[in-house]
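We include the pair:
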Amino acid sequence: MSHHTPHVKTRGGRKTAVGNVGRPPVSWALPGILFFAVFAIVPLAIAVYLSFCQWDGLNSPTLTGLDNWTRLFKDPEFRQAAWLSLLLTTISWAFQTPVALLLGVWAAGRQRSRAVLSAVFFIPLLLSTTAIAMLFHALLDPNFGVITEIGPWFGIDPNIMGSSTGALLTVAFVGGWQFMPFHTLIYQGGARQVPEVLYQAAEMDGAGMFRQFFHITLPQLRHTITTSSVLMIVGSLTYFDTVLIMTKGGPGTDTTVLPYLMYRTGFQTYDLGYAAAIATALVVVATTLSLILVRFSGFGNMRSTREGM
């Protein structure tokens, strides 16, 4: 009977095993790869193909070359929708990130009421987006909603959904209210991985709570911030049901973001080829922004300190 002995390499007088570094075989990833291919890659490939076709959803698609893409780059409505999507993404990120980061760091502590308050705060994450959008749509109704009673107390116009700025900010707030607990959970997990010895050493040096947060917690959470930001960007760029239920792209077209424009083009005017081009462009924008964020944050160079153990 033969026994496999890993190759031994000498480094500085110490023997280290090379060959079995603790990584699972590639075959373990096959189910995930197949699932991703069937439900992501194949539909994306079909959408890309349809973006070069004219199709009404009933008859067979007809190849038209670059007609849809030429129309896309000349369409002012598409440019406005792309700008609104980027603006909504920026507002959502600026609103959710600081709050989720602070709440996540707090939830990682040992406060007596932490568990109960964290459980209550995570409740919106359990609700469906449709139910939340309908709830806020009723609350913000300018005729019968609660906003008519409490709005004047805070100097808020009860018809906040009737203005372009108010409608866009409301959509960003509702999305943040639902998904901020998810990002809080990410930051909570990241904060719990920060070595306690760093805080102990900082306390011995006389560093207070704020200095510890800015010089220890934030630097240690830089990759967590990148992960949360990528998920937030992709999620914000794909806002659809909230816009459909609360604003229907209005007032006018002031909240017609790319996903809603894609829906309206494909399922109201039955121009599914052009809708596929919009969908493909949305994928390109989301992927590009995510890759830029990963590239300039250094996330791609991150290595696990436990690899090979």
Summary: The first helix runs from residue 30 to 50. Residues 105 and 188 are 6 Å apart (CA to CA). Residues 1-6, 304-309 have pLDDT under 50 and may be disordered.
